[in-house]
Amino acid sequence: MTLDHIKSLDQQHFMEVYTGRYPVCFSHGEGCQLTDIDGKTYTDFMAGIAVNALGYNHPALTKAVCDKASTMMHCSNLFYVREQAELVKKLCGLSFADRVFLTNSGSEANEGAIKLARRYFSKQGIKRHKVITLTNSFHGRTFAMVAATGQVKYQKVYEPLCQGFLNVPAGDMEALAKAIDHETCAIMMELIQGEGGVMPMDPGYVQAIRELCDDHGILLIFDEVQTGIGRTGKLFGYENYDVTPDIMTLAKALGGGVPVGALLSSEKASAFTPGDHGTTFGGNPLACAAALAVFDTIEKEDLLTNCQAVGANLGERLESLVQKHSIAQYAQGMGLMWGLKIVDSVPIMPIILGMLDQGFIIGPSGHNTLRFVPPLIITIPNVDHMIDALDHQLTKQEWKS
Ligand SMILES: *Cc1c(COP(=O)(O)O)cnc(C)c1O
Known about the structure:
alpha/beta, 17 strands, binds pyridoxal-5'-phosphate
């Protein structure tokens, strides 16, 4: 099948939500390289939006998934599931959490987090149902998460929205304190806003939010769907902040490409009682085996150290582009999660397409920002080559503007 044929089938029959797709169709990958159906290779700095943490065809992950596919992919949660038991034990051992619920996606994990926060109070006979989130955030596309997400562009056409969510400006402690009332049950936030332009939160702000939650006896939820699983140079983003949440959600990189999400909580906050929540697919043996292989590989290959070292290099190199090019405003990020803000007058699409042309995959984020979230196995030579290409693209756009 040619790209044109695939494109025309997609344009005729896929719902028109991804109309801006890039004109490439990949067939397979190896390490940090992807190959398209015409045989052209690319170095991947997007990892399927922070999903493919081990790159492509990692032997340990491929083996874990193939083994499970040949024995048992799915098993109902009516039964005990060995891989699930191993994974929840692993997640609790590695994080603040005492209990875990497994899902298939980030949105679902977040939905579970909201239900859990409400349940925490309803179990005590207290009427508290409101959740405060931050502007510019992204928490997913399900109906409740559209209301949680603090960006009007995702909400407008679906009004009236799901009730019980309140968005306050990110970084504004006073607004947050004012927004809390006797009906507030939780604050939910990302530590680095991934879709909102790769915006890291200030540590002082995050610590103040923890104190505010404690003062009011409400729960703090960290949406680590994008920042979790080594992305920031620590296994979980909160480890960079010296702040522990009551509830945390994970997904994207958790299965290294196999869909799986998780809802984690402290013993105190784990208020679900039998029948309160459930899922058909969540926590199936295949997904759990994939997640176990991801954790195992991060540890065996010391990928957190690689993430810190290569990430620091990536940050420095992006900063050097900011110094050199007037259209590049600033670079910000942590570990292997970086954004490069381009002046609003210069569209980023031609830069992304130009990079594809040169064999590099980079992504967009909010506020005219280029996003870099490569596999955690990326190397410094990979970064050097990508930066050279980006340097060229920025020069080209500068000429045009
Ligand atoms: C991607 C993302 C989600 C949504 O995850 P899905 O798997 O697409 O439902 C939620 N929160 C954050 C921070 C994300 O980056």
